[in-house]
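@channel sequence for tomorrow's demo:
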Amino acid sequence: MEQTTIQELINSYKVRFLPEKAAGKNFTMHFDIQGEGAQPFSIQVKDGAFTLSETLEGDADCKMTADIDDYIKIETGKMSPTVAVFSGKVKVSNALKLPEFLQMFRGFVSVKKEGLL
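structure tokens (generated this afternoon):
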């Protein structure tokens, strides 16, 4: 089976974005992905529009810090996000805002299964 890369995950947000769920919302999410081959990135949503930056840009409403391998496992369904957070493998600042961000995006696994990536 082909290994999912961090770049594939970053680029997948373009396909996963649900503009109808983002109407009237302003949100900045930082992904501080660490480790060999890692790349931090930011997603900004402003009133239904989506911007992806391959740096940590702007003031974050929520920030996830994770090792590259753990982040890939979470996105590909091989690790529970809840377990990752409670075990300390992933840190999320302002975690109560995370569901607001997640509702604006489809899951990686579902869009991959549908052949959209």
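heads up for whoever presents: The chain has six helices and five strands.
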